[in-house]
Write a structure and sequence with these properties.
single chain; 153 residues; mainly alpha; two-stranded antiparallel sheet
Length: 153
């Protein structure tokens, strides 16, 4: 099952363009780039590095576990850096640099998390609603953003 990238209607896997809206499609399914190629299970120890590998990947889907563990680990690292800077009395250069480094991957994993619940990444701009979507369980099976990341594990 493949969905059009523009109008989200179901189309045939081999279609190079959508018969409904005429939008061109990718040669491969979006879900295979995110979920099927990543065989590494998400754990507390490797979630930060797994998300950082896909630091600017806004396509595909991310499980709740991946999003919330990344948020937890990056917050713990940020607190640790801030604590060490406070003890040493150094300016907040490292914590600011870490925040800049984690900004784009944090946005990317949040957009992929919204895709998992079958919502556009633009919902990230709506404060309370995006939190509700982040908490919801993802769509079982494939949706318009790709294959189910739980199904490939």
């Amino acid at each position: 099952m493949v969905f059009c990238r523009a109008c989200a209607k179901e189309i045939h896997q081999t279609a190079s363009s959508c018969p409904g809206c005429g939008a061109t499609q990718l040669a491969t399914d979006v879900g295979t780039t995110n979920a099927a190629l990543s065989h590494t299970p998400i754990t507390f120890g490797n979630v930060f590095f797994e998300v950082m590998k896909k630091y600017a990947t806004f396509q595909g889907r991310a499980r709740r576990k991946e999003y919330w563990l990344f948020l937890l680990v990056s917050t713990l690292i940020s607190f640790f850096i801030g604590f060490v800077e406070g003890l040493v009395g150094a300016p907040q250069f490292l914590s600011s640099l870490f925040s800049l480094v984690v900004l784009l991957p944090g946005i990317a994993v949040a957009v992929r998390r919204l895709h998992d619940s079958n919502h556009s990444g633009w919902w990230l701009l709506v404060p309370i609603v995006n939190l509700i979507f982040m908490i919801q369980e993802g769509t079982s099976g494939a949706n318009r953003f790709g294959a189910d990341p739980k199904a490939t594990i």
